[in-house]
Amino acid sequence: xxxxxxxxxxxxxxxxxxxxxxxxxxxxxxxxxxxxxxxxxxxxxxxxxxxxxxxxxxxxxxxxxxxxxxxxxxxxxxxxxxxxxxxxxxxxxxxxxxxxxxxxxxxxxxxxxxxxxxxxxxxxxxxxxxxxxxxxxxxxxxxxxxxxxxxxxxxxxxxxxxxxxxxxxxxxxxxxxxxxxxxxxxxxxxxxxxxxxxxxxxxxxxxxxxxxxxxxxxxxxxxxxxxxxxxxxxxxxxxxxxxxxxxxxxxxxxxxxxxxxxxxxxxxxxxxxxxxxxxxxxxxxxxxxxxxxxxxxxxxxxxxxxxxxxxxxxxxxxxxxxxxxxxxxxxxxxxxxxxxxxxxxxxxxxxxxxxxxxxxxxxxxxxxxxxxxxxxxxxxxx
Amino acid sequence: xxxxxxxxxxxxxxxxxxxxxxxxxxxxxxxxxxxxxxxxxxxxxxxxxxxxxxxxxxxxxxxxxxxxxxxxxxxxxxxxxxxxxxxxxxxxxxxxxxxxxxxxxxxxxxxxxxxxxxxxxxxxxxxxxxxxxxxxxxxxxxxxxxxxxxxxxxxxxxxxxxxxxxxxxxxxxxxxxxxxxxxxxxx
Lengths: 382, 187
Hints:
The complex is a heterodimer. By secondary structure, chain A is of the alpha+beta class. Chain A has a single domain (54-347), classed as Cytochrome-c3 Hydrogenase, chain B (Orthogonal Bundle), CATH 1.10.645.10. Chain A is built from 16 helices and eight strands. Chain A has helices spanning 7-10, 54-58, 67-71, 78-93, 99-127, 133-152, 172-197, 200-206, 214-219, 225-229, 236-239, 245-248, 269-293, 346-357, 363-372, 377-381; strands at residues 14-18, 30-36, 39-46, 161-162, 165-166, 312-321, 324-333, 338-344. In chain A, helix 5 (99-127) packs antiparallel against helix 13 (269-293) and helix 7 (172-197) runs antiparallel to helix 13 (269-293). Chain A is globular and about 70 Å long. By secondary structure, chain B is an alpha/beta fold. Chain B has a single domain (6-141), classed as NADH:ubiquinone oxidoreductase Nqo5 subunit (Beta Polymerase, domain 2). Chain B has four helices and ten strands. Chain B has helices spanning 6-17, 45-54, 115-126, 170-181, and strands at 21-25, 32-33, 37-40, 62-71, 76-84, 91-99, 104-106, 129-131, 159-160, 163-164. The longest helix of chain B has 12 residues, at 6-17. Chains A and B meet through helix 9, strand 6, strand 7, strand 8 and helix 14 of A and strand 2, strand 4 and helix 3 of B.
């Protein structure tokens, strides 16, 4: 057998193109990978293939008219993108949302989060070679899609939230179905854990892989589950409560799940997986509690139609989206259109970190890293 | 953990930077900023941000967002920084006005790594140059794109690499066709 020669000795390095159409990049993203055999010296992300100029569109339609476009910011969990836009515009316009509207937002957000994590976890397992969990997850996501379809008529781009509330009220029959889904879904989480989370091979594959320490995670601006996996106890829902989360979370004994390094280092890929599984559990609890509390609000009062929405000034909103803290900044100049709108999304920040984190990883681990950060390409490009 | 209100944050910055920070505005419910903010002279941005991150009472460890806003009437390209502190759970918004004809602001990549992509995004869409950025190039638009699309005076080119950027409605074309052939659908 001939002797192995490494690029570090010869200075030879291979530059590979990965993507834009690559099955494991979760959308259209391209990487320029510099490798020495299997070990990468760098993977430079090249994004923008899905850029739809959403922020430019925001300047060209009315505040309310822009709502359907926010679905496209993150189409895997469109509800939270609806929410952050509505929240920012309401803050700008000084609008109050009736309590029932807030509860419906919470319920729809959490359903959307469950559905989004189904894709995140199933796809992550599939990307590193475990095919079985993906159809299991899609089966659950179908239930969620059916529920949301019944609530608002759409299965992917929901356009459910409105400036001033939500689009439609729930029905008693729908509540029964959601509760039935909750009863069904909690044991499924246990099943899923037996199937994959605590699978020996899976743990060996992900433990200690691309661990991100807490301080790095903060500096890189990681948000949401990625940040919590690195041991930073922060969740917008609990720490900067919005939409009546402050009434719901204390009732269910909320404890923000954080990565503990159970299988390896804190903030490794397994922790990122595990935190999302835990978020499933909490989402179910939040939905149950919100459905309980919503009974006390008068039926039909879920939306206050904003009149003459021509605000001046600027406002921000933060919402815990499925891919973490989504930040929306909107500037109004006294007309019916936004003067400037900016979305800072979780995938954007996560993607920014890959170039540095990929140094020294194997090519196959890049796939695991992308998947564990739960990157969705349209959310990067907007 | 001790949360500071925005006035105290501004006072701390003013105590250190004097006149370079100015125009503190508390958050108001109507006609103005809803979140408290103050302005900083662009050349002091990096020093201020380093101070805001490192001062033990402030400790802004998270750059939430960086947005550029074009104000042609004021001849200003504004960089808006939203900062948050995980340590103290307080937040502040800092704005830096740079002139439109020379929109240069020091880069804060050395302060927060996440500024890397955020600054590239604003450079790409608004043409604000973040001085000292290690890799300042377009990120969302193609590298050879002309102009900065989110500037208010931006005019889209007729075509990009031979691809038209707009097209007539096919129905207009049908009307032209009908007129040329004098067909009347109603008959």
